[in-house]
Amino acid sequence: MTAPDLPAELKAALGARLQGFSRNEAADAAASISRTYRDGGGSAAIRTETDALAYALARMPATYAAATASLNALRELAPHFAPQNLLDVGAGPGTASWAAAEAFSSLQSFALLDANSALRALALDLAAGSSRLRELDYRRGEARATLTDADPADLVVASYMIGEVGDAERSALIELMWAKTRDTLLIVEPGTPAGYGRIIAARKQLIAKGAHVAAPCPHDGQCPIQPPDWCHFTQRLPRSRAHKQIKEAELPFEDEKFSYVALARAPVAERPARVLAQPVVTKVEVTAKLCTPDGLVVAKVPRRAKADYARARRWRWGDAVIDVDRA
Ligand SMILES: C[S@@+](CC[C@H](N)C(=O)[O-])C[C@H]1O[C@@H](n2cnc3c(N)ncnc32)[C@H](O)[C@@H]1O
Known about the structure:
Helix content: 25-40%
Distance between the termini: 31 Å
Oligomer: single chain
Largest sheet: 8 strands, mixed
Bound molecules: S-adenosylmethionine
Number of strands: 13
Shape: globular
């Protein structure tokens, strides 16, 4: 499975891009973009080269890690999936395309769409030295218009994008993305109740159109999670020096919370249960919250069931697990 940290080629390209830029200026731009996001705004605030670079330094490591974790979950459930082409909707600096290139060596062509010129320019610059992404095709424009003209792709990805589209427009966009999906559509969102709400709505909309969930859900039925709970996962990622500086942070890592759904044209062969929170391990038992084909279950695996206990001790939040012993 692919590691959550940015690939060496991308790190080097970002480092090279940072040469000649004032880190203070980039940190100020990153802080202002973060404020806009916190206040419910989107990436329309990213207008200049400095804004785009600040966004990429501050957010690309985390959205890359979330996209990678989602792609890893998809690959685990669909081990024979070997997409030839990718359509990255709301591609920004190209994050999900880089993640998909790492996850699938089969990918040969990359089509990216985005309305933001500054992010598009940065994406082209970052990809220029990449062995896999050098030839990418990046169209600038409104998602629905550019998607209408786009060729269908084996894998379509919308990473941290659908939340920037108004409620009224979102379901038409999702339908269009599905129409352009030959095999699998992956949608990744922030792991907030609102992000999960958009994922669950897209999931319901496309299951009604014949889609099947490949990951994370072990079924195509109604989500059993009730508010105030929501389905989300977390991915730890390392912070580089530039990343720490730009975020004015001390810790050498951060944990990105994300929600996702991978919807496929054909059902996957296996539907393992999904670990929905970090299991609690004691000397007596392992307690794990699982989503199973029959709904939510709190599994308790006692220590006396030696082999099962040893296996359950290794479960991590987000894992797909089989042979679950239920309490
Ligand atoms: C938060 S960024 C995510 C970028 C990238 N996918 C990632 O995961 O890092 C959202 C992207 O969606 C794009 N976007 C939002 N609404 C759009 C629309 N209606 N048409 C085209 N692009 C859009 C923005 O320009 C921005 O680049």
